Task: structure prediction
Amino acid sequence: MTARGLILRLKAIREPELRRIHLAGLLEAGDPAVWVEVLDALIGLAARTDDADAQAIVECLTQAVAVPRLSYRAREALYTEARQVGRGAVARLFLDASPATANARELERALEPERPLQPRGRPLTLGERKAAARTSRRDILIALVRDPHPDVVAVLLDNPHLTERDVVAIAALRPAAPPALVKVAEHPRWSTRYLVKRAVVLNPYTPANVAIRISTTLRRLDLAAIAADVNLPDVLRLHAAELLAAARRPARGDG
Result:
């Protein structure tokens, strides 16, 4: 299997979820040493070029490796192999833990059970805010976009009246509850929107392992911004810097 061969194989599968399941199955059953080199070549190809097919398969990869689609056994084997052969950008895709990105007080405030929609309004219970998140009224939706509770965010994201601009605002909220940002990052409808992905990665409250996977799909200009942002986790900045380096080096084993 080569990077080009993988692109052609997955491109033939039109439905995104079936494509992700198929790739996860290949990674699960294959030789980690082979797959690490294929994935490294694929990431390099997408980083160096404007090849839409390569970029689409990298997008598929970042979702296929997410928990729980890929087993812990397979993730550990691929991570260990990638570390041993010095493929840091590949290894970090299989991280499933992150340093804390919110302190205890910030998280406690985000998870408060009662919160007003407006600064001087009556405090609403979590149940009332979740019910309100199903509305079609723009004034209420705009107010709820600032609600950091992950349960409210989950309902909002499924609201058909929510716009991409609203979701970007949710993803950019600071301080934020990391679990709420994970809801955005994993949502079937919104997780592939470029501006949403960018906002999630640039938010320092996003768990680093989640931000690393998503950043692998971003453009070089945004990777440069991530690498230079001292407010972001060091491991994420390192990942962005390595992706930029991959974009500059000569092709190797693309197939």
Remarks:
- Residues 90 and 211 are 14 Å apart (CA to CA).
- The two ends are 9 Å apart (CA to CA).
- The chain has a mean pLDDT of 93.
